[in-house]
Amino acid sequence: MTILNPTLACADPLHLARDIDAVAAGGAGMLHVDVMDGHYVPNFCLSLDQAAAIRAYRPELPVDVHLMVTDPFAWLDALAKVRPAMAAFHLDATPFALRMIQKLRDLGIRPGVVLNPSQPVELLAEVLDQVDYVLLMGVEPGFSGQKFFPQTYRRLEQLAALRREKNLRFSIMVDGGIDFENGPHCAALGADILVGGAFVCFGQPDGVTASARRFVQALEGVSEKENAE
Ligand SMILES: O=C(CO)[C@H](O)[C@H](O)COP(=O)(O)O
């Protein structure tokens, strides 16, 4: 079943704990923590110190970290203190992706790589059997609230087909511009994890918990349909 990982980038920074409780009550699978260095993307977001505080606040909720940073190796010591369940770095941020994947694994963190919308799925050829997940960006990284690129569907289909053909077990996460329409469609095409932000859990008229719950229920509907076929 496809799960919802709400991105805390969209939470109210003055009420982070309240919003964590709200998405947890709405059925969040994990908490998605966006880390930006102001260089790989022209923005800053949550820090790994905040990620550690989030882990301490709700230790039963797994955290996945999305590193939008130029030098992912420089963040390993801080990641080791946070010990998230999963962490992903951008494939184009380092020529040593296999080493970075191994470093994450050595820390007990499930490693993932991220592809931006303009990067072909073929770039993943040498890492697909090494990673636990691939994060496909549905928007250019750096900001929430952007419109989903529809070509993400084709890229997702290609990735899911590669997974089937090669009999691999990595999960597929889609992040950016996910809403109530494209989210279930991504789930039907093979996404295992959807990152929900401005259009799914935060800023909806029915509030954080109710909108997250609606989205989780929409995803359950997809799984049920698929199972019935
Ligand atoms: O990685 C991100 C930005 O780089 C965010 O997780 C993503 O954009 C989610 O926000 P939204 O769903 O509002 O687009």
UniProtKB/TrEMBL annotation:
Keyword Metal-binding: yes
Gene3D superfamilies per the UniProt record, alphabetical: Aldolase class I
Keyword field: Isomerase, Metal-binding
SUPFAM superfamilies according to UniProt: Ribulose-phoshate binding barrel
EC number(s) stated in the UniProt entry for this protein: 5.1.3.1
GO molecular function: D-ribulose-phosphate 3-epimerase activity
Superkingdom of the organism of origin: Bacteria
InterPro entries: Aldolase_TIM, Ribul_P_3_epim-like, RibuloseP-bd_barrel
NCBIfam families: PRK05581.1-4 (NF004076)
Protein name, as recorded: Ribulose-phosphate 3-epimerase
Organismal lineage: Bacteria, Bacillati, Bacillota, Clostridia, Eubacteriales
